[in-house]
Amino acid sequence: MVVAEQPVDDLPAYVERLAFGARQASYVVARLNGQRRTDALRAIAAGLRGESSTIAAANERDMRHARESGIGDALLDRLRLDASRIEKMAEAVEEVAGQPDPIGETLSAHVRPDGLRIEKRRVPLGVVAVIYEARPNVTADAAALCLKSGNACILRGGRESFHSNAAIGQVIGDSLERSGLVREAVQIVGTTDRALVPLLLKQNQYIDLVVPRGGEGLIRTVVEQSTIPVIKHYAGNCHVYVHEKCPYDRAEAIVLNAKLQRPAVCNAAETILFDASIAERFLPSIARKLGEAGCEIRGCARTIKLLDGVKQATEQDWYTEYLDLVVAVKIVDGLDEAIAHINKYGSGHTDAILTDSVAAAQRFVEGVDSANTMVNCSTRLSDGGVYGLGAEIGISTDKLHARGPMGASDLTTYKYVVTGDGHTR
Fold this sequence. Notes:
Blueprint: H1 11-31, H2 34-50, H3 52-68, H4 73-79, H5 83-97, E1 106-111, E2 117-124, E3 127-132, H6 137-148, E4 152-156, H7 162-178, E5 186-188, H8 196-200, E6 209-213, H9 216-225, E7 238-242, H10 248-260, E8 269-275, H11 276-292, E9 296-299, H12 301-306, E10 311-312, H13 315-319, E11 326-332, H14 335-345, E12 350-354, H15 358-367, E13 372-375, E14 395-396, E15 404-405, E16 412-419
Parallel strand pairs: 3-4, 3-6, 4-5, 7-8, 7-12, 8-11, 9-10, 9-11, 12-13
Antiparallel strand pairs: 1-2, 2-16, 14-15
């Protein structure tokens, strides 16, 4: 199965066909019972496994082009799909399939004194457009979550992952047809033409929500150009704060995991804060291990006094999401300064405290304004799969309409169903 980019002579007409087709498909998907949608997801998981070698071959084509273009190792890691990662994609789809059906759930219900019944019922959003960059697993994750929540979707991946996305999309479309569903329920954009995105973002008569996943530049462009509601996170400037009542072994294990385990992802730690009372005992050893792993440290003035060969952190460093083997380190005078630093410089994504003090942990959770506040665990655990969502459509740093890792239920809204017995007003 070799998928080539489609030549598009009339881009506005192509975009409108995509959006209109998705809208029509959304009416079909919304009326399906939960078991039909679950069966379709299981068919997609089986298809991913059955076409694993085809998907891997398409991905190798993308990887080859990416290497020739000089793309860095961090982005190459995001792009790569091997047999293990394809299996994890299939498992994520199966996990979404196995979750309770969110559609039709009664969120609240009551009967008024005159006998009028008021019910608040969960329903699909309709059509979701996801615009993302070099992570082809998003194609399967987004499709699964949208189908589970009764939505149709339009998926526009990055140029770097075009062939991978197309191969995954072919599997999804074939699986939908075998399950008796319409292919238009999940549509993969068949062109890498950048002029498509502004046109797609104006299809507010057909599309209900846009979710951008990628760098800050992509997200800001989508927000500025869209006439459709957008759920986003601009950056993952995540912090780990080592409190004075944290044991050394815990601090070392979590700091190293948060920064080094996969530095190119949005929930990797970018700044480490150490209480002044333990910095002299903890920081040199942890910094040495970071350095041995190839991680560059940019420190505050107090950090530089403790460590040799550390670069001076600039004001901009505290705001920066490196997505690389670089970390900013600051020594703080206690919990209040740590909270103030995070709220000033952080992006509201994921921030952690390491402490044996229940009171300090509670103050941190209440004081830090982030979508995910972690206590004695790595920021890398901020993830839809870890949270039991199966997959995530993204990690929202917005406060409306969803926050944190977004699963199937976050792709729904609600309607009021009012039942009377001849009631009039």
